[in-house]
Design a protein that fits this description.
The chain is an alpha+beta fold. The protein has helices spanning about 1-25, 35-45, 125-135, 325-335; strands at about 50-60, 65-75, 80-85, 95-100, 100-105, 110-115, 135-145, 145-155, 160-170, 175-180, 185-195, 215-220, 245-250, 255-265, 270-275, 285-290, 295-300, 305-310, 315-320.
């Protein structure tokens, strides 16, 4: 009797130990999808409209996490609206709208609206950029906003994971994204907490109407006015959603440089631009060179996050900030007259 009980206990323990890895594996006959396939779906977006709430969190070393809630609505064709909620206030902090042709960023508290052409990237071009930077792998991703997902990990060759993407299995929508610092700690998390898909947001959401007295500014107009006489900057045509041009600061005429700063209120990126006859040093360590098309970018790891050096015929741009490497590369690739 004692032997029988012991055998049953051992069998039960074996089943418990085997249950966890079995649940993590896809069921028999259901292999993992290719990472390229998932990334293309995520970058293309679903063929239907959707709406929901997204939680964006920033994790800074030695400080409490900062978070904002973003109300999101989207329709096929590149139409997207993102409203940042400020606590319990009814008025949103920032409103970012893409209508498929132009991008608008509205700051209600300051009665300012920035508008410029929308920088469109094909899913294939986005995948090529990620492939140039990272090694891709796929695993099961659990559920996000009640949707089953696949998780795509993007790692530096032979090194740590830099970026993870949770892609909905049914719709292909990117439901969650995490970026990591060079030491592997979490830097930023963006995830849907509520989602309705399919949905049919009203068309008026993607026509940004502002009250009288609002200043309508070009996309290249900084939040703080600065004069740049000797080296007018070449600005990126693409920045992440919600980022605005905060300042353009001239350096000394002898240095022939200008410093540009973008921010979304939670994270920042700075671009120092100098003439090509100078030899600026890329800050940080563990530098590597990434080739994308006919251009090369040098990347490094810094205390804040990452650095990037991009050279053109007559300019050198030094990027630094807590953005992910792929975002820095996309900004550098989109520099005006930079290709």
């Amino acid at each position: 009797m004692t032997v029988g009980i012991k055998m049953k206990a051992e069998l039960l323990l074996s089943l418990i130990l085997l249950a966890a890895p079995a649940a993590a594996r896809p069921r028999a006959g259901h292999s993992l999808p290719a990472p390229d396939e998932l990334v293309l779906k995520a970058l293309a977006g679903p063929a239907t409209g959707y709406s929901g709430l997204e939680r964006v969190q920033m994790f800074r070393p030695g400080a409490k996490p900062r978070a904002v809630t973003v109300r999101v609505a989207a329709l096929p064709g590149g139409r997207l609206r993102r409203e940042t909620k400020q606590g319990r206030r009814k008025t949103p902090g920032l409103v970012c709208v893409r209508d498929g042709r132009s991008t608008s960023l509205y700051w209600p508290a300051r009665k300012r609206l920035w508008r410029g052409p929308q920088s469109i990237e094909t899913p294939e071009a986005g995948l090529a950029r990620l492939r140039a930077l990272y090694e891709l792998s796929v695993s099961t991703g659990g559920r996000v906003a009640k949707q089953a997902t696949w998780r795509v990990n993007l790692s530096v060759p032979g090194g740590r994971v830099r970026l993870s993407m949770w892609v909905a299995r049914l719709s292909g929508l990117l439901l969650k994204r995490e970026t990591y610092r060079p030491d592997g700690t979490l830097s930023r998390r963006e995830r849907f907490t509520k989602l309705q898909i399919p949905a049919d947001p009203v068309e008026s959401l993607f026509r940004l109407e502002v009250p009288e007295g609002t200043s309508v500014l070009p996309w290249s107009s900084p939040q703080t006015e600065e004069r740049v006489a000797f080296l007018p900057p070449r600005l990126p045509l693409w920045v992440p959603d919600g980022y605005m041009l905060v300042s353009v600061q001239s350096r000394s005429p002898q240095a022939k440089s200008v410093l540009v700063r973008y921010s979304d209120g939670a994270s920042d990126v700075s671009i120092e631009e100098v003439s090509a006859d100078q030899q600026p040093k890329l800050p940080g360590k563990n530098s590597r060179t990434v080739k994308l098309g006919t251009r090369e970018f040098m990347l490094s790891e810094t205390e804040q996050g990452y650095g990037l050096l991009a050279r053109t015929a007559d300019r050198v741009h030094l990027f630094s900030g807590d953005l992910a490497e792929d975002a820095l590369v996309r900004m550098a690739w989109s520099l005006e007259d930079g290709r």
